[in-house]
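Table S2 (text version). Query chain:
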Amino acid sequence: MNVSKLRITIDEKPLVDINFTIASSLALVGQSGSGKSLTLKALLGMLPSNMECEIESDSDFELRVGESLSFVPQNPFTALSPLTKIKKQFFIPFAKVKKLFAQVGLEIELLERFPPELSGGQLQRVVIAMALSNEPDLLLLDEPTTALDPENKVIILDLLKSLQMEFGFKILFVTHDMVSANSLCEDICVIKDGEVVESGVMENILKNPHAGYTKTLIDANFANREFRA
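Corresponding structure-token output:
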């Protein structure tokens, strides 16, 4: 899918003016304030009412949340109602819930528990199962491993890669974490101040970044320089 224009303005002042292509999995990377969160909100239809948004896409599916689009939020601990059993937070047939639980590696007995009774890794799997319940064409990820320990972070990223192969959805991973982005995504789009700095194949840009801003992000994320030319 090619988003040929995504432009967000407030009082006619541009906040984000970018374009990007999601061939399979794309990481949208930038520091806080770069415009990546606004981009995600625009795709989800969650921008504040005082902002204007134009989106042009040649995708073969319409960008509709709950139909072609699904969303995995940053923090699984706040994504679910703590006072409601897991099973009552799904709104699909029970047989489909059971299948999804098996696909994300959860025991069916966890449906009888309340969210605070589950670990962070288990909760993120529940949220992923919910996101896949409508069989989306595009899965939007908002830093989905930020609240997890290093071991569970790797497990969830590996799970997402496996699920993408099984379900065939595209991924847009919004993050400042280039290490996780490299683990999950084939391509990268680096943005700063609402504009694209550079984009392309992940491996190529990590090995040979052209923009100073991208080099700074790489230096801040990787302890060694194995990705540098």
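Notes on Table S2: The longest strand covers residues 2-10. Residues 2-221 form a domain with the Rossmann fold fold (CATH 3.40.50.300).
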